[in-house]
Amino acid sequence: MDLNKTLEDSKNKINSTETSAELESIRIELLGRTGLINKLFADIKTSPNPREYGQLLNQLKNQLESAINLRSKSVETHDRASLPKDKKLASPAVALAKVGHLHPITQTERQLNEVFRKLGFSIYDSPEIVSDEYNFARLNVPADHPARDMQDTIYIQEPEYLLRTQTSTIESYLLQAKNKDLPIRAAFPGAVYRNEKVNRSNHFVFHQYQAVVVDKGITMKDLIGTMDLMFKTLYGPEVVVRYRCKYYPEVEPGVGPDMQCFNCHGQGCPLCKYAGWIEMGGSGMIHPKVLAAAGIDPKIWSGFAFGMGLDRWTMAQNDIKDIRTLRGGNLAYKPNL
Amino acid sequence: MKLIYSELKKFLPDLSVKPEQLRDDITMIGHFTNYFEEIDGEIVFDLDIKVNRGDCLGYYGLARDLSVLYNIPLVLPKIKELSSSNYQLPITVTTDKVKRIMALKISDLKNSPSPDWLQKFIKIHGTNSVNTLVDLTNYIMYLYGIPVHAFDTAKSTDNLVWEINSRFKQFITLDGTKFSLNKDILMVNNPQKALSLGFWGGEACAIENTTTDTIVEIAVYDRTTVRQNSRWLKATTEAGTRLEKDLDPDLIPKALGHLVKLILENCGGQVSSSLFDYYPHKINSLPIEFNPQNVSLTAGISIPTDFSIDVLTRLGCVIDHNLVTPPPLRQDISLEADLIEEVIRFWGYQKIPTTEVLSFKELPDITPKIMYLIDELKDKLVALGYDEVLSWPLVNQALDLKTVVTTQNSINSEFIYLRQSLIQSLKIQLDQYQRFKLPQPQFFEIGKIFSQKDGQYIEKIALGIYNYDSKKLPQDIESLSLPLVKGGPRGIDNFIEIILDDLPKPDKYIPLISSSQAVELTSQIITLDANLTLNTQENPLSLIKKYSALIDEKILWSMQITDVYHDENLNKYRYTFQVSYYNCDDKTAKKIHLSTFNLDTSVTH
To answer: Across all residues in chain A, what is the average pLDDT?
Structure first.
C-alpha cells in the first residue's frame, strides 16, 4: 500500500470535517480499534521489510494524530458558531476552513524526491556560499576556462567565494564527504544564483534539481532510463524525450535531454523557437577528473549526474507567466482550496 | 554560429541529406541547432557550438564531424604550394604567449568592394562587408575557425612585433573604440605605433580600398592570455571568441594557403615575401590508452570494437594497438572517456534504451536530519492554514554591518546584502500582499540566513512565520512543539523567527505530496461586505457554501461570515458576509456582489 497516498487522503478527510462529530467519526475510521491504522499494522508480517514498515506506520499514525489535534481546534470554533447562545451569535469570523499551501517549487521537489527515494536515494544539501574550488575547480572547470562563461557568477569575495551557480556544487560536497562511503545515491533540490537581470523570463535566484549515483558498473543506459522516469513522473507517460550529445565540463560523455514541444508536438512554434524540442537540462557520466578530485578512483567507480531547472515547469503547471512571481510576493493561494 | 548549407557542401560534395535531417543529426552529435531558415536564397543553420569544440567554430571542423557521421569524404580546396620571394619579413616575436604565427606579404593588389558572393556570405554571418581583402580574411576565419589579420603595410611597415605591450598607453580599434592599455596585453605593434590587439585589429593599419600592399597573418596564441585580455578590456569579438579556445596550429597552413589563393584570384597582385613561420614548440597530441570494451561498459549497450576503431580512424586518430593519438585539431580529447564519447555519439545516443531504470538498492540514508525537520514543519504549518512563500535572499538593508555578508557584483546597487533574518524578506512579502490587499495573510518561509565572523561565512536555516492575527501566532507555534523565540531583537509583533539548526530533529519523516494550485496576483483583491437578513437561523457554513457557489470561481477569492446578529424584536437573523474578489476590476466586483446577495432589493429569506 502507498502510505504516502494514505497519509494524503486521510489528511484531506480530516481537513474537510466541519464539526466535532464529523472529526470524531474520521478519527474512529482511521485510528479506532478496527480502524485503518490497526488494519495496516496487521500487514507487518507479510511486509518484505517489517522493521521499516513498522517505523513508517508509527510515523503515519503520529502524523494523523497530530492532524486530528490541529483540526479539532478549528472545528470547535465552527461548532460554537453554529450554536446560538446570545444575540451576537458568531464571533469571531466563520469561514470555510483556511487551508495552507506548500509553495509550488516545494511541491515539485517533493514529487521528485518521492521518485528517487523509491530508488534508494537520500536527499542532500550543502552551503550556498561556496568557494571557487567547490563550484568550479572540482567540477573540471579550471580558472580562465571558457566554460566559466556559461554561468554569470555572483561573487562574495572575488575570485574565492561566491554564491553557488548550480546544484552540481552540492555534488562536489557530496562526493568529497562520502568518498569513503560508496556506493552513494543522492538527489538534491536547491536554490542557485546567477548574475542575471531580473525580468519576466530571468531571475538571479532559481531552482534546480540534481541526482547523482556513484557505484560500480553504472552506465549511460542507467542514466537515460532513470532520467526518463523523472520526466514521465513530471510530464506524464506520453512525454517524448530525446537524449543527445551535449557538453558539460563535469561529465563525459555528456547527455542533453530535450522534450518534444508540448505546444506544437515537434512541428516547431515560437515557444520552442521552431526547434520542435525544448532543452530540459544537462546530464552525463561523472567526469573521471571530478571523481578523482573527490578522492574516488575512476578506474573502480563510475557514476552519473543529471540536473534540470524547476522554475519553468512549475510556472507552466500553475499558469504563472512571470518568473518573478515565484519569489516576488505576488504568489498567493485561495484560502479555502 | 551560422552555417550555410551550400558552403558546407563545398567540403562535403556527397552530402545529400535534407536540411531537416541535417538539423536533427548535427544536434544529436552535439551541435545544437534550433532551426534553419532561408536567407538570400541560402539554407542557413544557427548552431550552438559548445566551448570545448573551438574547432567547430569553422565549417572545416563541422564538416569533419559530418564526414564521420555520414561516412562521406571530406574534400579540401586544391591549393598550389605558395610561391614566394626571397624577401624575409622583419617580424619579431618577444613573448612566449604565441604558439604559432604564419605570415606572408602580398604586393601590388587592387582592393575593391567585395564581389556579391562574398558580400552575401559575410552578411549572413552577421558581419558588415568592408572590402574584398578584409572580407576574405573574415571568410577564411569562418571557414577554418582561426582568426586572420591583414595589415596595410603602407601604414604598419613590415616591422611587426608580437609582444606583451608595455610601450603604448592607448589603442584604437578598427571601429574606433578607444582602450586605455594599463595591463599586460598581447599586441602586434611596430617600433613606432600600436597596431593591433591579439584579438582585434587596429585603426592605425586598417585595410582600405586604396591598399596595395598587405601582410596577412594567421596566429594561435595561449588561449588563457587572450581570454584575460578580452575580460580586462571587456571586449568580445569573433576573433577573441575563437582565440580563447584551444585551436590547432597545424591548421594554419591550410587556412593561409586558401586565403592567399583567394586574394590572388580576387585582388590580383603577387606574393612578395617568403613565408614567415614562427612555431617554437610543435604541439603533439599525447597517446591515450583505449580499451574498446569500455565503450560498451560506459554506454550499457553492446557497441562493436570494429565500429569504435572505424570511427576513431575516420576522426583522424592514429591507432597503435591500445594507444590512440587524437588529431591535433581535437584538443578537447585527452582521456579515454573523451574517446568513448566520440564513439558513442556517432553510434547514436538514440540507440540507448530509455526504459531501463536504475533498480532499487538499499543504501544507508545520508539525508541530513534537518531536512526531515523542515519537511515536518512545512506540513504542520500547512495544516494550520499557513501558506509557504519563497522570498529574495538578497536584501537592501544590513541588520548588523559587522556581520552582514555583502555581494560584490549584485544584480543591482540596492540589494547587495544576504539576509541576516528571514523576517527581513518576509516583511517585503507582507508589503506586497498589502499592496494587493490580500485579506488575512498568514504565511511562512524556511530558508537560509547568512552572516560572517572571523573570516568564516555562516549559514543557518531559519523558519520565519507571519500571521495577521498576533494572538493566534503563539498558539500555532505551541502546536508545532518547538521552543518559542519570538521575534528576537530583530522581530516585530506579528513575525516570529526560529533557527532550526539546533533543534531536535526526527530520524525520518515522510512528507505529504500535494498538488495545490498557486495564483499569480496581477491586480488588487477587492473585499466587500454584505448583510443578509433571514427569518430563520441557518448554519453559517452552509450559507457560505450556498452563496460561494453563485460566484464564478475564477473571480471568487474567499468568503466568510464576520458577524451573526439575532434581532429579538423582529425575530430575524442578520448574517454579515465578507467576500473577496480577484481577477476583476472594482466595478465588476461590486456588480457581481450586489447581484449575488440581491442587495438592491434587500431580500429576506
So the answer is: 86
Residue numbers of B between 361 and 400 with CB closer than 8 Å to A? 361-368, 371, 375, 378-394
- Of all residues in chain A, the one with the smallest CA distance to B31 is A246
Hey, is the C-beta of A269 within 8 angstroms of any chain B C-beta? no
pLDDT at B483: 61
Q: Is A105 on the interface with B (CB under 8 A)?
A: yes
| Residues B294 and B248 grouped into a single domain | no
Query: Touching check for B534 and chain A: CB below 8 Å?
Result: no
- Say yes or no for a CB contact (<8 Å) between A154 and B409: yes
A278 forms beta bridges with A259
> Both B119 and B244 in a single domain?
yes
Q: Is A331 on the interface with B (CB under 8 A)?
A: yes
B540 preceded by a cis bond (ω within 30 of 0): no
Q: Examine the fold and report which residue of B221, B249, B278 is the final residue of a domain before the chain moves on.
A: B278
Residues B15 and B141 in one domain: no
Q: Are residues B106 and B207 in the same domain?
A: yes
Instruction: Looking at the complex, report in whole angstroms how far the Cα of residue A100 sits from the nearest Cα belonging to chain B.
Output: 4
CB-based contact B384 A321, cutoff 8 Å: no
Show residues of chain B in contact with A249, CB under 8 Å.
52
Local structure of residue B413 (DSSP, 8 states) = S
Does residue B373 sit in the same domain as residue B347? no
Task: Say which residues have a Cβ less than 8 Å from residue B553's Cβ, sequence separation at least 6.
Answer: none
B92 in contact with chain A, both atoms CB, cutoff 8 A: no
Which of B358, B368, B390 is nearest residue A326 as measured by Cβ atoms? B390
Q: Which range among A17-21, B5-9, B97-101 shows the weakest confidence by mean pLDDT?
A: A17-21
- Contact of A316 with chain B, judged by CB distance below 8 Å, is answered with no
- State the cell numbers at B330: 581535437
What ipTM, to 2 d.p.?
0.90
Give a yes or no: residue B307 inside a domain: yes
The CATH number of the domain holding residue B419 is 3.30.930.10
Q: Which residues of B touch A124 (CB under 8 A)?
A: 366-368
- What's the total number of domains in chain B? 5
pLDDT in tens, B31-89: 999 889 999 999 999 999 998 999 999 999 999 999 999 999 999 998 887 777 899 99
pLDDT at A92: 46
Asked whether the predicted pLDDT for residue A264 surpasses 90, the reply is no
For the purposes of burial, counting CB atoms within 10 Å of the CB of B287, is it exposed (0-12), middle (13-18) or buried (19 or more)?
middle
Contact B512 A15 (CB under 8 A): no
Q: How far apart are CA B299 and CA A250, in angstroms?
A: 17
Q: Give the tens place of pLDDT for each residue, B146-175.
A: 999 999 999 999 999 999 999 999 999 999
- Of chain B residues 240-269, which have a CB less than 8 A from chain A? 244-245
Element (H, E) at A60: helix A50-81
Nearest by CB to residue B566, choosing from A8, A84, A205, is A84
* pLDDT at residue A44, rounded to an integer: 76
| Domain limits, chain A | 3-81, 104-327
- Least Cα distance to A167 among A136, A139, A188 occurs for A188
pLDDT at A94 over 90: no
- What's the distance, CA A314 to chain centroid? 11
Q: Is residue B78 part of a domain?
A: no
Handedness of CA A100, A106, A108, A113 (dihedral sign): negative
Residue B405 with chain A: CB contacts under 8 Å: 129, 156
CATH number for the domain harbouring residue B231: 3.50.40.10
Residue B519 lies in a domain: no
Fold of A104-327: BirA Bifunctional Protein; domain 2 (3.30.930)
Q: Which residues contact B356 (CB under 8 A, 6 or more apart)?
A: A221, A222, A225, B300
Q: Which of residues 157-196 of B touch A (CB under 8 A)?
A: none
pTM of this structure? 0.86
Overall residue count recorded for chain A in this entry? 337
Only one residue has cell 434581532, namely B567
